[in-house]
């Protein structure tokens, strides 16, 4: 059965045709996902999502490209969306750690510091948290992703949907604003 015939049968929800389609293209989709995600379990999950999307939207395939190109595009998009989602989850988890819910915080002290150094470290954390909280939203997002998540500008630009240049501008402005806000904090306290 040709690919076009398979797609026509899938469009009328023929499960046998869908099963043949999955068998034919599963390795291609799985490899694409795994090359992006570098995690076999996540790749298996995302490849299943790709085939579910195919099954649900097969009528949207216009035949202007090869089926493998269409599959590749869906697999890449799903994989990138998964990475973005994981990064956002990690980012929000980091924000919880930084700004976190006091009931969830465990106050771990560094045993290598004497009491005075620990107090100074705690005070610096408070100053930084308050300063970051006062930053404009985009600056806060960019500086957090760069400084705490250690993401490169290119990834930040993808996550935020802005240019790499704009990321650099936001981070530089955030650093300048943080210096001023931290100085103000210490002048007032």
Describe the structure.
This protein has 189 residues and is an all-alpha fold. The protein has two domains: 3-85, RNA polymerase sigma factor, region 2, helix turn helix motif (Rna Polymerase Sigma Factor, Chain: A, Orthogonal Bundle); 107-188, Orthogonal Bundle (Arc Repressor Mutant, subunit A), CATH 1.10.10. The chain contains eight helices and no strands. It has helices at residues 3-11, 15-37, 40-57, 67-99, 115-134, 137-147, 153-160, 164-188. Helix 5 (115-134) crosses helix 8 (164-188). The longest helix is centred in the middle third of the chain and has 33 residues, at 67-99. It is elongated and about 75 Å long. It starts with a helix and ends with a helix.
Strand-helix topology:
Blueprint: H1 3-11, H2 15-37, H3 40-57, H4 67-99, H5 115-134, H6 137-147, H7 153-160, H8 164-188
Helix pairs in contact: 1-2, 2-3, 2-4, 3-4, 5-8, 6-8, 7-8
Keywords:
189 residues; Rna Polymerase Sigma Factor, Chain: A; single chain; mainly alpha; 2 domains; Arc Repressor Mutant, subunit A
């Amino acid at each position: 059965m040709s690919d076009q015939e398979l797609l026509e049968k899938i469009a009328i929800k023929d499960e046998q045709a869908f099963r043949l389609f999955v068998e034919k293209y599963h390795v291609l989709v799985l490899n694409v996902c795994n090359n992006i995600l570098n995690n076999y379990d996540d790749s298996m999950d995302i490849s299943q999502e790709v085939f579910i999307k195919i099954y649900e939207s097969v009528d949207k395939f216009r035949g202007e490209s090869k089926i493998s190109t269409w599959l590749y595009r869906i697999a890449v998009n799903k994989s990138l969306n998964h990475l973005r989602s994981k990064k956002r989850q990690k980012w929000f988890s980091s924000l919880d750690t930084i700004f976190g819910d006091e009931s969830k915080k465990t106050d771990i002290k560094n045993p290598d510091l004497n009491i005075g150094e620990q107090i100074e470290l705690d005070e610096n954390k408070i100053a930084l948290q308050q300063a970051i909280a006062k930053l404009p939203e985009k600056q806060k997002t960019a500086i957090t992703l760069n400084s705490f998540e250690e993401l490169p500008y290119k990834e930040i630009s993808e996550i935020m949907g802005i240019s790499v240049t704009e990321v650099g501008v936001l981070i530089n402005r955030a650093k300048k604003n943080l210096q001023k806000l931290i100085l103000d904090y210490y002048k007032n306290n």
